[in-house]
DNA sequence: CGCACGATGCGCT
DNA sequence: GCGCATCGTGCGA
């Protein structure tokens, strides 16, 4: 699912109807039995959305200041999610820039990295547990396509700790050399 | 460019 | 009380 989400369009509709949207260009998979996964030990109030039906948002707060956005992917009761790490901004760039709170951000960097993405789209814990598939949802994924030339690559996940398997598993997926992909330069090519 | 570090809240042990 | 699925800045090369 992490691979399949690449190229699709994540859309956030603001209260005033403004559409903020971008093409997903970088994801990571967090799997059952994966020691880097927030629900590795047990179900808690925070990680409960990862146990909910596929298409449920899981948003968590980290480092005292950042939010990260995931989509649950497995059947109800099975904890799993895809972290959305970067978008190629497509709609509402001026609004995204305002949300970021700085005017010196390049277009391609507006939604570069999981916390920047949440800030640009104004996503916070209020979205955790919401159903992206609900007909009236203000946050959802639209079908879209990658332009044919794009190459999808994998790497170990960024910024995690855990056992050897978690550290080595190639569960990060990204569009090679895309300007909106995050991480150290070597992990963008 | 690469690396070190501080900010800052809170979930979980 | 520890450590985090991060980011921006500041330093030296």
The CATH superfamily bears the name Methylpurine-DNA glycosylase (MPG)
Just name the CATH architecture: Roll
Number of domains: 1
Number of helices: 4
Q: Beta-strand level of the residues, as a percent range? A: 25-35%
- The CATH topology name reads 3-methyladenine DNA Glycosylase, Chain A
Inertia-based shape: globular
User: CATH first level: which class?
Assistant: Alpha Beta
User: What percent of residues adopt helix (DSSP H or I)?
Assistant: 10-25%
The count of β-strands is 8
Radius of gyration: 16 Å
Largest sheet properties: 8 strands, antiparallel
Summed over residues and divided by their number, the pLDDT gives a mean of 96
Structural class: alpha+beta
**What distance separates the N and C termini?**
21 Å
Low-confidence stretches: none
Helix-strand pattern: HEEEEEHHEEHE
Characteristics of this structure?
28% strand, DNA-binding, 4 helices, 8 strands, alpha+beta, 189 residues, eight-stranded antiparallel sheet
